[in-house]
Write a structure and sequence with these properties.
Helix content is 76%, strand content 0%. By secondary structure, it is mainly alpha-helical. The protein is elongated, with a radius of gyration of 19 Å.
């Protein structure tokens, strides 16, 4: 007895899904990586904001430790690797979950700093909606990987 053609997604549809997921992961890497540039630029002495919104961030940037920037950079790099592996049809859900959960934990820790609490008094809560969306993307990556095993 053969399976119906609709029970296993077509390889083209699965590749399209993987490309879309890779795009979503790249957007997450970008949205996490752009603020990192500001933090690193300040820490390296490359930027010296004296007015505007960036000047308000100086105390938060100053209280951020180098190890936090290192972990943050590793998370962004991990997301870039995940996007590449998605397109190359390689298993990647473990790396994806590690990167987003480590990044979420780091964000939570950084929001606990006294300067972050002062600057973001009302909004210094952890963004659970974003984490739920990122975990849903992880579930889709897992699903796509399961289908890869069946479709070759």
């Amino acid at each position: 007895m053969s399976e119906s053609p609709t029970s296993v997604p077509a390889p083209r549809a699965m590749m399209f899904l993987r490309i879309v997921l890779a795009g979503v992961v790249l957007l997450q890497a970008l949205s996490s990586g752009l603020p990192l540039i500001g933090y690193a630029g300040f820490k390296l002495g490359l930027i010296h904001p004296v007015s505007g919104p960036a000047a308000r961030m100086v105390p938060v940037w100053a209280e951020t430790a180098w190890w936090q920037l290192g972990v943050w950079s590793a998370c962004v790099a991990g997301l870039l690797v995940v996007a590449w592996r998605l397109i190359r049809r390689r298993a990647t859900v473990g790396l994806y979950l590690t990167a987003i959960l480590l990044n979420a934990g780091l964000q939570w820790l950084m929001l606990r700093g006294p300067e972050a609490q002062r600057l973001f008094a009302r909004s210094a809560r952890f963004d659970l909606d974003r984490l739920a969306l990122l975990l849903a993307v992880g579930a889709l990556i897992w699903w796509a990987e399961q289908r890869r095993d069946r479709t070759g």
